[in-house]
Amino acid sequence: MSRYLDPADSSKPYKDPTPLPSDIPKVKELGVTSAPLKSAAFFLGAYCKDYNEDFMLCKSESADPAHCLKEGRRVTRCAQDLIAKLRENCLSEFNDHWGCLEKNNQEYYHCRKDERVLNKCVFEKLGLSKTIPGAPAGKTPIHEVKNPVYTGVQK
Amino acid sequence: MPPAGGFEAVKYKRNLPFRGPSGLVILGGVTAVCAYGFYRVGKGNLEKRELQREKVWSRIHLVPLLLAEGDRDAYRRQQAALAREREIMKDVPGWEAGKSVYNKPNHRSAETIVVI
């Protein structure tokens, strides 16, 4: 007989070594930490829009994890594609920006200098631009404001 | 006897020489400083709203990616748990492994997990 062990109190981590069933196609997980993801978030939103929306529509049909595996793999592959392209074309700019985010509590407004360089590079090389949905029309978007009130040490 | 030429006139008039800027100037200055401060606060509030919007959208853009990864892991654990259940309950006739105790077909995430 087994005894109930509260996973929250367990001294062992909650790991299950069983691999995915073999009939599910394999996809390499992205394995990117939070700062690079945050740095690439808006490009990811622009580049993988169709796949992301498809996946979220699928998830709204059913919350079952088995239901949207195919769409999920597409999302992950697209994200991998984008990160690879970013690293290929704008490696130093990307590294500078996410390094800055890492050092500044992952707040965008501390890292506008590096962000502008990255945005410019990505726009030139990949044709992706950062747009914030729902921002008031006819005003400078917050990431392009010249003299913002909220700044870090770096402008 | 009074001194020659009479007594000196008694000094009774107020003698407050003008010092510093007038009250009106100070008041005006304070008002100007406050007005500029409030202008900055207002601008800052508008900016804060946009910064929040930016932060929220950066997270929204990442939701599908993280959810997809989590789903794959959840599915893997689900299948492993099902296989375990099938193995444990194989001698019980009429046992359906993975059958929900609820009649609603909606997906519910597992209430319990097994720590191996």
Can you describe this structure?
Chain A: Belongs to the complex I NDUFA8 subunit family. Chain A: It is found in: Mitochondrion inner membrane. Chain A: Residues 1-22 are annotated as: Disordered. Chain A: Its main location: mitochondrion. Chain A: It comes from Trametes pubescens (White-rot fungus). The complex is a heterodimer of chains A (155) and B (116). Chain A is mostly helical and 155 residues long. Chain A has a domain at 34-130. Chain A has 4 helices and no strands. Chain A is globular and about 65 Å long. The mean pLDDT of chain A is 91. In chain B, 9% of the residues are buried. The longest helix of chain B is centred in the middle third of the chain and has 66 residues, at 23-88. The radius of gyration of chain B is 42 Å and the shape is rod-shaped. By secondary structure, chain B is mainly α. At the A-B interface, helix 1, helix 2 and helix 3 of A face helix 1 of B.
Strand percentage of chain B lies at: under 5%
Query: For the residues shown, what is the average pLDDT of chain B?
Result: 90
Structural class of chain B: mainly alpha
Low-confidence stretches of chain A: none
Order of helices and strands of chain A: HHHH
In percent, how helical is the residue content of chain B? 55-70%
Number of DSSP strand runs of chain B: 0
Low-pLDDT ranges of chain B: none
Cα separation of the termini of chain B? 120 Å
Question: Total strand count of chain A, please?
Answer: 0
Rg of chain B, alpha carbons = 42 Å
Helical percentage of chain A = 40-55%
Tell me which oligomeric state these chains represent: heterodimer
Q: Summarize the biggest pleated sheet of chain B.
A: none
Coarse shape of chain B: rod-shaped
Number of helices of chain A: 4
Tally of DSSP helical segments of chain B: 1
Topology pattern of chain B, helix = H, strand = E: H
Radius of gyration of chain A: 20 Å
Pfam family, one (chain B): GRIM-19
Function (chain B): Complex I functions in the transfer of electrons from NADH to the respiratory chain. Accessory subunit of the mitochondrial membrane respiratory chain NADH dehydrogenase (Complex I), that is believed not to be involved in catalysis.
Protein name (chain B): NADH dehydrogenase [ubiquinone] 1 alpha subcomplex subunit 13
Keywords (chain B): Electron transport, Membrane, Mitochondrion, Mitochondrion inner membrane, Respiratory chain, Transmembrane, Transmembrane helix, Transport, Ubiquinone
